[in-house]
User: Fold these one by one.
Assistant:
Number 1:
Amino acid sequence: MIKILYFAQFREQLGIDSEQIQLPRHVHTVETLLAYLRGRGGNWTEVFGADAVVCVAVNHAMVAGQGTVAVGDEIAFFPPVTGG
Amino acid sequence: MIKILYFAQFREQLGIDSEQIQLPRHVHTVETLLAYLRGRGGNWTEVFGADAVVCVAVNHAMVAGQGTVAVGDEIAFFPPVTGG
Amino acid sequence: MVTVSTPLGNAQLVRYARQILLEEVGESGQARLLAAKVLVVGAGGLGVPVASYLGAAGIGMLGLADSDLVDRTNLPRQVIYSELDIGYSKVQRLEARILDNNPEVQIMTHPRLTPENASAVIEAYDWIVDGSDNFQTRYLLNAICARQKKTLISGALSRFTGQLAVFRPGDACYQCLVARLPNRDATQGCVEGGILGPMAGLLGCWQALETLKQILALSSRLQEELLLFDALNNSSHRIRMRKDQACPVCGE
Amino acid sequence: MVTVSTPLGNAQLVRYARQILLEEVGESGQARLLAAKVLVVGAGGLGVPVASYLGAAGIGMLGLADSDLVDRTNLPRQVIYSELDIGYSKVQRLEARILDNNPEVQIMTHPRLTPENASAVIEAYDWIVDGSDNFQTRYLLNAICARQKKTLISGALSRFTGQLAVFRPGDACYQCLVARLPNRDATQGCVEGGILGPMAGLLGCWQALETLKQILALSSRLQEELLLFDALNNSSHRIRMRKDQACPVCGE
């Protein structure tokens, strides 16, 4: 299992705070996890589309797209925000 | 093991944020845990003395003195504060 | 649940546009804020930001209860007061500043709440926000709110610690949380323990925000939980409160 | 570490008594605040509480950079402005209100920071607080702070989300966190997304408090961490930042 947390607009646009899922086959990195989530269709495709700027933390530390994802990890997706 | 968290003045007066200890023999309730901590002497005796008003949460829920404490629990001690 | 049907005027639609834009607020939520009657107890480190932001947000009727005069030592954390206000009534200066920002708020000022006057003052409000600086007042407000079935939004500070909780009729009350009146020596308010100004501002704004969430009845509002905030390491803990069946205020 | 030895005057000892009482501050900490030079970028929802509380806390020299005029829609979250200020310069009104509370702060006002003026403005300050409302300005400040080796205390809002981070020279920078400039349509500031007033106040006070902690060099100050705050369910997360070796601003 992995735990995924969604923050800010992602949470609002996807209508989900967090979920626990089986680590999908072929998912070993942040990039492949994002591709898997995009594959859910609907809002997921747009929210995590190619233009989206998505910050990612694995187990409370920021990682880049090549960062690895493994069973037991907690992955957080959040957008940078800019309001002042 | 149990985990104990200290907040606000308790933290400052005892000089400790949190600790993990073996559940001492004879400690089964919040009251007996407080008696054990008082027995450490020095600041502990005063901070958790008979006059002290100590709020206690076990596993993120408030409990009274008779509340039970068991292996694996997280116990938080905090004082009510009143500044405005 | 109170249904509010008064339509908003054009000036209100402009002024409150950023709040109305939130789906959690909308025009009906803004109308609900404009119909709300909120008493802010204390015009100090917490009361100043609470009342300033509630007035600016469009709370319809705002009560301010305090008898203190502005003192030089208040200025670093009670930022709305000026040096020229030193020696003058806090609630009168605060009232004037809130009206400068939002002339449509109806403001009532009251002296410090005591066992003699508190019940009659509280009667006129639906929501009571406690930013007082002593346990006696906290006990008093709690007992009256329990009796009058008013929701109490309670904030408290000590050095780098903030505590925030909401006590609704029927839920655990303040005295379930603080079962015994602490010894005066053991407690450190802002005067005895010291405080950094923005610490008071942070907790006061948090209290104002939670008050709006309560009035708007957002599903995520604080309910039977105590929030412990530690500003030194920026951590917060949420602790579930529990009704004490033997509580002299709200027990059976 | 800068050692500050200027003794405090009697009026200062009185005014700042509650801050000095904290062992984390003391007279030497207060002297350090009085010697600090802080630039606040933006005089809006974040900038207003940041600058108000920093001025009241006794920051010696405070810069305010913004070209906006007060607008009616600002009033619910920028509580220091009055209806009579509508149409007037924000930084000038904010300067006046800070001086009302604390006449000894030296205040400088500046227009909105641009690639043409930012470097010269930032030169005069030691600490830069970013409360701006767009990614272009955030990128600009970050690049100049990295070059001039200034610490950047960055706050940002969207609806019920707040983000707070401190970027020190040598650590991960803002562009390590936000590697690509987000598309304008994808981002929601206070204008597009809506905001409740006290939400801005809460994050602004948090930012001011963290700025004081940085100046005081408290061991618990925020370092290479991003704080994510969610005001709907009152939760906060701390995320460790990581320097991007390929970062065009701070990489090798």
Note: Chain D touches chain A through 46 residues (CB under 8 Å).
Number 2:
Amino acid sequence: MNKTSFRRIKNDTYKLGLILLTIISTVPFLLILFFVIKNGIAVINWEFLTSLPKPIGENGGGIINGLIGTGILIIIATIIAIPIGIITGVYLAEYPNNLLSNSVRIVSEIFQGVPSIVVGIIAYFWLVKPMGHFSALSGSFALALILLPMIIKSTEEMVKLVPADIKEASLSLGVPYYRSILKVIIPASLSGILTGALTGIARISGETAPLLFTAFGDSFFNINIFKPISSLPLLIFNYSISPYQAWWAKAWGISFLIVIFILILNILTRILYKKI
Amino acid sequence: MTHIFQERQSILNDNIIEEATIVEQMIKKIINALINKDTNLLQEIIDGDEAKVNSLVIEINEMIIQLIARFQPEAGDLRSIMMIYKINGDFERIAKKSSKIAKSILLLMDEPPLKPFQDVPKMLEATISMLKDSITSFTTHNVQLAYDVCERDDIVDKYRSHISRELLILMIEDSALIQKSQSIERITRNIERIADLATNIAEDVIYIVEGEFIKTKKSKS
Amino acid sequence: MKLKLLNDKVFKNILIITTSIVLLIGVAFFITLILESTSSISKFGFKFFTSTDWDPVFEKFGALPFIVGTLLTSFLSLLIAFPFTFAIMVVLGEYFTKGFISEVLRYLTELISSIPSVVIGLWGLFFLVPAVRFFQITFGLQPYGVGIFTASLLLAFMIIPYAASIAKDAMRLVPKDLKEAAYSLGATRWEVIKQVMIPYSRSGIVAGILLALGRALGETMTVTMVIGNSHFIPKNLFSPGNTIASVIANEFTEATGDLYLSSLIYLALVLFLITALINLLGKYILKKIQINH
Amino acid sequence: MINSILKIENLSASYDDKVIIQNINLEFQKNKITAIMGPSGCGKTTLLRCLNRMHELTPNAKVSGKILLESTNLNDNFMELNSTDPILVRRRIGMVFQRPNPFPNLTIYQNVLAGYLLNGIKLKKQEADEIVEKHLNLVALWDEVKDNLKKHGTFLSGGQQQRLCIARALAMEPDVLLLDEPTSALDPISTQRIEDLIVELQKTVTIIIVTHNVGQAGRVSDFVAFLYLGDLIEYGLTDTIFTNPKNLQTEKFLTGKIS
């Protein structure tokens, strides 16, 4: 009897302890959120969103260059990665066991775990060095390399989820293979693929490391993809390690924007995910 | 059950009714032959009708086996098909008996008739009405009529014992008539069997409809 | 009709060519790293890993401080993360597998893993660093604030949700009848967790830890922001240091000499190989678990 | 009179060098229902999938022998399917699968027209409406779904989905319809409705059905082909084979001694 009650107490203690640890582990997150919101909202205003940064010492100034830059970087990265990713994902799902698909699967898995800074180095050697200067394009390329394996993976999984007999049904109606893939398989798995893509975009929208030696940053308004370009995460980094308090405040403001953006993407992803 | 099954079942029913009609016709022909002294009719029964019934019997048997093999009918369908199988056999026997009767009568035709012989058509009439009603009860699933048929078996039995008694007296009086009397005796026995078979059919109808086997026939002492 | 067959062929070729391009990028990626680090490899060879000298002016490059820094931060963060990861794994994998609490926790952990590392670094710089400095002053340590420990704390926070979600999935794969068998023998829930579920999902937990380690090894921005960027082997857990990733982030654009750059790529190659190996191993374990189910 | 629409000559098929069916010779009668039956793994489905050249889509699949389909061209009695574009073959030989598989991203209306839509064949609105109504009527689904044509087919019951799939195959006006165990995923009542439908459809189309269910073969077919271990063991009228099979294996299979 005594032993049983001891066991029961032990059981309850462990449960309580584990739940407590779980709650503690979310504390830093809540703190981050609190700091980002508290310090961020303070600096957000129209000027912050729409004007260029001003030299240190002058008041005001904004981050429009970073906003535009991040937008351009993400859009180009997505344009590069999505078609290649979807096509490759379809190939992996359709021909799951030949030499090519097995090696690509390994490559894609390695890519998923490659530190993003190493990706930045590659983009530097492939694009920055030959072109002679930093550019938005090289930054986008680096981001695309990070996005690509995520899209490949989600496409492969989603296409595999489409029952094989759906494809057969299409083929049995005399529909050519390519149309069956494009008109049946891809639409059927599209919301899943998009979910994957959105998750990936959320991730690259906060990437900083690979941009350090590719997009590099620029304090002027620029939409030329062959020139260096600024980006929000880069601005956070540069401002936060600067010695100026005014710039620290801006770093918080930008963080706020990014976190909001990622939250929105997250909600979008959830909505899409529910539709699958 | 599928269309095919229903289709086949109705063909089967048509066939059994066709068979019934032929059998009924055979007995009617006997009566007519007796009344009109028409040997051709008897010849028709012996040469044509029996063979016709026999080929129908085979056809129906095959159909039933196929139906059971392919559709594995259950409950009402199963009862109906099994009873048709039995009825089919009954008709086959009725046809055989009718043919025997026809043969026996053919032999008696040339000779002057015996008095009890005049009762044979009446007995036949009673039998044919039983047969008719049992067939009607089958096609209309009329249990009441079927029970009625079973009851009427006694009438035919009475005819037969009546005729037997008369024949017995005749044979005691005149031993020359023994052979002839025995022929008539055989005929009445066959008619009585036909009536029994008609009763069987009626009992089968009761089983199809009510799902219960009954035996109305009293065991003969 | 001929046209349609032709289209099929074209389509299949597009699939193959695009996929091959991905393969090509992967191979070229690796080759680029090797080629660009050749001069450093041939100059320093294996000594690169044992030397503590990192002197761009005299073109002497030894990576030991960074390797030590990387290993220290990674393993320290794993150590810090482990109890929390374990707790989340059990809580989400067994106590609350469905319902509101599980949804909220799952959503929270998902959100944590999607916050950009640079934002976490920012928070670390302005909240954690002063906090650690306060702690160091209180205990009479040198008040750096930044350093190995601070970086490990942040890393731990970042890898907890990642490791926990993998481990939790493994835990949920435990067959129901196995659990029920244990309950029917009179075991308490904790005993079932400890004696049935954890042994059963051991390889999944290992995979989660491995993949989290891979993350910690390669994480750049947060570490760069709070580690203190020192070229010396850290004296203790609170001293500043540098990891492979942070040294690349700090010095790559300033690297003037060819050998300097090449040495940084050498570091990148090492980082790449280690993380690739750890990742493949983790994924391999996960795949094996999935096949078993 | 024998009126064949589809002939198989010396057909063999293998997969990964494993022979699945060998040297099969068979003729399918026009507007009749032929059931292919046999124990699992005997090659029924493979045989069926050879007929509309779906088998060759399986990796490492090999097919040899001739399959001849009654030609639409009057000069030529039969055309050989192996030398015909598979796309054309599949338009003349439709197929329905084990599990109901309506296209999830298409509406009921679009599902019936899927053969046209996916092939990029343009139809006038009126023409399309007619095709949809006609074929949904043909599968006795029109009254049940006519108010929900713009909805996706996923809310339909399994049996309704399967009928939708049959309508989809029929909308291409095929000459032959292949059914691969079309009721194996359905409940008994849906199964019965599909069986009724199959019998009804033979007026419009020649039907070849694979089934592992002896009863089903008995209920719906006119002819039966019995396959065992990749060989065609017996072929004939269903009535004959079900009551009096010539082959011992067929007898054993029908009486449940091999399955």
Note: Chain A touches chain C through 85 residues (CB under 8 Å).
Number 3:
Amino acid sequence: MQQEQTNNGGRSRANQTRKGMLTNLQRGETLLEARGITKRFPGVTANDAIDFSIRAGEIHAVLGENGAGKTTLMKILFGQYQPDEGQIFIAGQPVDFKSPLDAIELGIGMVHQHRKLIPAHTVIENIILGHPNAGAVLNLSRAEDEVNRLCEKYDFSLDLRAKVWQLSEGEKQLVEILKALYRGAEILIMDEPSSALTPVETEKLLDSIQAMAESDLAIVPFITHKLPIVLRISDRVTVLRRGKVVSCIDTRDATEKSLAKEMVGREVLFRVERTKIERGAPILEVENLSVRSDKGFIAVDQLSFSIHEGEILGVAGISGNGQRELVEALAGLRKIEGGKITLEGQDITYANALHRWQAGVGYIPADRIAMGSIGDFNLVENTAMNYYFDEAFSKRGILDFKQIRELTTELVEEYDVATPGVDVKARTLSGGNLQKLILARVLSRKPRLVIVDLPTQGLDVGATEFVRNKLVEAKQGRASVLLISEDLDEIMSLSDWVAPIYEGRFMGKLPADSTPREVVGAMMAGIELDKQGAAT
Amino acid sequence: MQEFLIRSLDASTIFTIAALGELIGQRSGILNVGVEGVMLFGATLGFITATTTGSYMLGFLLAIAIGGLLGLLHGFFSITLGGDQVVSGMGIWILGFGLTTYIGSPFAGPLGLPRIPSVFGLSPFFFLGIALTAIVWFVLSRTNLGLRIRSVGENPVVAEVSGISVTKTRYLCVVTAGMFMGLAGAIFSLDYNPVWAYNFVMGWGFIALALVFFSMWNPIILIGGSLLFGSLWQVSLNPQLLLPDLMSRYIWRTVPFTITLVMLLLMSTRWFRTKWGATKPEALGQAYVKEG
Amino acid sequence: MRIGRPTLKLQKRVYLSGWRAASISILAILVALLLFSLIFLLAGINPLTAYEEIFSYAFDNPFGLPITLNRFVFLLLCTCAFILPYKAGLWNIGMTGQFYIGSLAVYGVLLGLGFRGSEPVNIAPGFVILLMVAASMVSGALYGAIAGFFKGKLNTNEIVVTMMLNFIAFWLVSYMIKEGGPFMNPGGRGESFEMAASLRPPTFFNVPFTIFLALGFAFLLYFLLKRTKLGYQIRAFGLNPTAAEYAGVNHVSIPVLVFLLGGALAGLAGYHYFAAVPGVFKIARNYAFFGDLAFYGIICGLISQGNPLASIPVAFLFGGMSVGGRYVQGKLGMSFGVDFALMGVLMITLVAFQFFYRYRVVFSNPQKENPDARILD
Amino acid sequence: MHRQNSVSRLFLITILLVVMGMLTTMCAPAAEPEPEEPGEAQVDETITLAIEHFSVIEGTTWSGAHDRAGKRLEEAYENVEYVFREEVGPDLTVPYAEEMISDGADIVIGNAEFMGLPLQEIAEKYPDVYFGSIIASDLTTKQNFIRLFPRQYQALYLEGLVAAALTETGSIGIVSAFPSVQVIRRQNGFILGVQDGAELLGKEIDIYVKYVGDWYLPTEERDIAETLITQYNVDVLTQQTDSGSPLDVATEQGIWFVGKDMDIVGFYGWSDTETVAISFDTRWEVLYDQMIKEFVGGVENPETILYLGMESSMTLADGTEVYTVDIMNDNKVGVDAISPSALPLIPQEIVDMVDQAREEMIAGTWDPFTAHAFVSNGTGLALEGLPIPDAGTVVKEADVVPTNEFLLSEFAFDLEGVTILE
């Protein structure tokens, strides 16, 4: 035991002496190596003897379906998790991260998929949070100078005194990158960096990443599901499946198809068949709808549109442009400022959420955990969320749980929800299965209007395919669908109409099959375009 | 009138110090509804120590120590064990009320020590209260430690990945908070009303708790709230000095609470929140369990 | 770190069997009693003797048991008053105030009907009793609903609001029963006028009929939460308000409703203690004592984890402890406050043991688990 | 799943309770029986006096005095045993009483008026037991249900004389609970004393009464005492409340304090004679003694209203004779009770007057309430059917003996000359 303690002490001394060692490395040398990393959670082995390495100057993508173990591996590399087995080496030296602090000290920075920022604090406060040289009494102006220098170097522009909640998603990501760089990161781990960014912002980000990799030896393993981005930017790609490394190849040897096959383990169809349904009567009509955000400003601005029977209207936009407010106003969860909402000729402007469910609105929220389900309820009780008010399932105020249970069992089967049974708590389901359950619950009500917000965010390829097909099925069932998504591919492939949204207004309502992708992308960024795609 | 003000200020001091403690804890995300219990412990043990040893200093030190210890206990329940903070706080209150009643009973009566001398006619603790408010304000808004505390209270996950130990920071805060509350209790029993009596803090801890919500987690507003409540308390006891024959003395006694209630409601309105940007620590009351 | 020493590992429980939960509670109570033995030992008393006195007086004594039962009814009502909002994720710290207001309403009915201490004429006493019960519940409900309404409408912290309402109600009672107040005792001695003897409700073994009401409400509440649409909405709202709202649960009416119903039960506790328990029959001078006792409803609610049925034995135990603790102090000549201290120690131990509902302790042997001792430098 | 959970938990807890119950019952016979003291085989002749104290004993003047009375009787008579219960609420009154009776209590006293009604109701059930209850205003009795109260106003009158002599500012303050017959009657005794003293010395004296709202609110009592001193220039303070806070304020501010109900300097040592100029002591033992004597004498129809004053007394175990009430301070009685530090400040004529009035009251030849007219101040407590007489109304002429009933249940107006602060 004594010997081990000495070793412990020795190790932390070694950690210290190696501080800053990464700067002396040459391009192409192996910076970080992980050997035989295994991490078990109760019931699953998230990482199974993973070998992984990063070379100086490379952009290394890590691909994998949800649950493949990408995030776990990155958290291990960042010291958030400690591996059960295996060893990490930095510049050939074994290291042992007890906490992210150890990793940060050795020059590893992380940009998380879910922003690790504090919205109530200012940009500069977020950047200096936890910085070892922040000093006991904060010297904000000195820190600002230093961060501004970094901004100049990489050509970022940011108001450092702004509160983070006021920033766009792209700016928030910038804050995270700056925070990592300010802490001296030489290896930058980015988890799903382009999710929630506009195409324009994504382009800019990819440029920055490349610039960083080239000019500064900032090393960027890059995790994503988005194959085009992987192909475009990375030098090497490691594919994980079920906690194991399936392959690690140079990107130039890979194709979209080959990567997808390795990720999923079978051939994947990327196109959902778009079926044209005969245009029916309008289901949802919205006139001059205005809605305020939580912060009190107008988030949805005099919006008017309609969706007909059997149509999917795709609202393309970067989050924060009023989609959330729009959806919540339609679902009856947010007070509207003005305007009128009609569902099949019935004025539901002032109907509450319950009445709207009963009137035939079906809403599939973006946040499956916080809004779409109740984690401590079992699957039966979760199904009841959309059925408790149904006369068929209750008598004189007493719920018929037996009947709801039968329904749940059926739905679980029909929608292929992987679960040991309907009595488990919803929180035990994976993201994809949870989404399937929600989808099953809502769509089984045969709603006339389906509002679906970010339906495939964070889902793996298989689940995404399933969800998209179900939406198309709903459309074929002559429902009208309002699809909110940030994923332009999803919008373009599913929708009949595309409405790019920018600052609470639709930039247009365009037929999906005849509008170039770039046009929509530009409109999402707020650029007014005529039909030909030229800026006006 | 001057004496009337002095009494108001003396009472405010106790509210301020107890509430400051609670504020520090809440800023780090730990809600302690057991302020009353910690104050009772501080007051009773401080009193017993002072009256048996004859030393004020020992009394205050012990009160602060027991406050810190109870803070540690609350921390253990809510940080290490990840239990519900309201449950733990309630437990501490009930324990405080119960044990101090038993322990203190044999010591019922006046303290029997010469009074702590006043400074410019005011209790020296008034100045301590002001100083502590200034210090807490400075630490929370201007120092690295303060930034850490606020971050831990807003979003412990973010703080942790930024290399801050959520556990350590929260423990630091919750123990400091307990020390403040213990001190407030001792000021009550050694300076404000140095006579031990059964359950004698009589709800002041709960008022301190309400003041923290009232202050919107800002030490400066907090001291304003304490002064307001201290004055209202005195007015309600002595309505004849300001507004004679207005209403029954019993109804007067409800006034401080009614006004607090009205102010709280006002602060809850959208108008007030958008105008003043009231910021509740986002992670308040939530246990943080480190992953992995 | 796990290297080289056998460690205690904590595992989150996926499932907690009823037996295990019950044995944890019992273990907690035993540990609390063990801890409290220290206090008896310090006072030079054999803890076994002390506990024997406590338990036999509280649960097996013709004089003690009725007190226990009366306290039990009171606590059970307060516990249920706490549980309902608790299930909706809200904290009712205002049982005290609701109880005070309920008591006032009972005497308000008597005053309104002109039975200020005099016998009712022309009205059947049973009807007056019914009116009193109804008044206590309605008024408690309305007073409780204030907090629910502001929570739902403005999202004002309900803990603070109910606390303030407690203080206000406390002084309102003083106003009503003292110094020319409408309910003042004819002798003006700081308590309300006495209820006419004919209005005393039937008792069973010195316990008024309210025991059946309380038990009935506990069962009803259990059924409400478990089986009804409303109960489902309440539970959904309590576990995840955002999701509940999404599912069409009204975020104003649920808080109002749970506080309304909770307040009604706490108000009924006012009828129980001040108009039904033998020997009282007035708003007592020490009404604050009962106000403080109402707080123990919070503890019982927490220990029974929001389950109204589980709260029955818990309230019974705490009712008995408060009675037995007080008794043993007088009997064994200890200094005042044994009962409060005993309940405090019970409370804090149970808080600590809450942990074991969620985690289990696993001993792990590092030699087996980590054959590579990871000596790496 | 959850349902099963809770049901079996409930079940288990019930089992636990049953098991605990069984354990205790099984233990009960095994537990050693109360060892009977060998000398006291003549169990029948032992008189057990049981007192239900409405409050805590330790550190209180009211229950503390009752407790001391019980102990003194135990000492004075070999065959008297004293048992008690503390902090007895209304719901506990009857069960505790019945339990103590089943353990052999012969006389059961409730030391607060709220215990009167419940005790009165069980009186017929236990014809062989005497019950006693404090009077605050209720005078109903039964054959074995006795109402008792000491004439504390006599001692308060004497205190008033001393207070009048001590005030330099001409302001005397009373921290008082809330208007009630008992409080007002006692205050009136004090007021008459102050007024007689002022007349004798040719002083102008204001008496301020400020109500706290309840008997026991330590913080508020302190705050109100401070107000009286700082806003009304009071330099002699007394109280009609129960906490030690007003005394502490007087000590702190260096003004004179006049005590009540018990000799706190001598008995609790809470203060000293530098602060407490005079206090009075209530010897409940004199009242209980009378009950015990009647009980032992087998009196079937004992006196049911005991309103005893300084003319009644008993002899304690150490041979001292104590009167029902008396001025007392630092274990000294009579004029000796006046604080040695205060004495030099008090004109001899006042000291003489105190001494003389005390002697006459002990002899039963004089009583302040008989000697003085009752002139209404127009303030006080309006009782049902008893409105407060208009200011200046002479309710009772001088030298007319007021009935006990009037004093105990109707004397609810303040005497002229006092200022009641809101």
Note: The mean pLDDT of chain B is 89.
